[in-house]
Design a protein that fits this description.
The protein has about 70 residues and is α+β, with helices and mostly antiparallel strands. The chain has one domain: Pemi-like Protein 1, Chain: D (Ribbon), CATH 2.10.260. The protein is about 35% helix and about 15% strand. The protein has a two-stranded antiparallel ribbon with strand order 1-2. The longest helix is centred in the last third of the chain and has 17 residues.
């Protein structure tokens, strides 16, 4: 499968305890370290997103801004 430049995909297996390992290439690319806190967001239609702490506040602000547009 060929992906656009800057886009990546990895296959992982979910273990019996619901855990999975982020592939080494992805950890290195995004600077993820053991013990680091990450945020996992879920959307029933779009799937999961995993964000390192450095990106969390910006993403949360965007999520709530988008959600408020639909609120009355």
């Amino acid at each position: 499968m060929e992906l656009p430049q800057g886009k990546y995909a990895w296959m992982v297996r979910i273990g019996e305890r619901g855990q999975f390992v982020i592939p080494k290439e992805a950890r290195e690319m995004f600077g993820l370290q053991p013990g680091q806190t990450i945020l996992v967001l879920g959307d029933a239609q779009r799937g999961l997103a995993i964000l390192p702490r450095e990106q969390q506040s910006g993403m949360i602000a965007r999520v709530f801004a988008d959600a408020q547009e639909g609120w009355v």
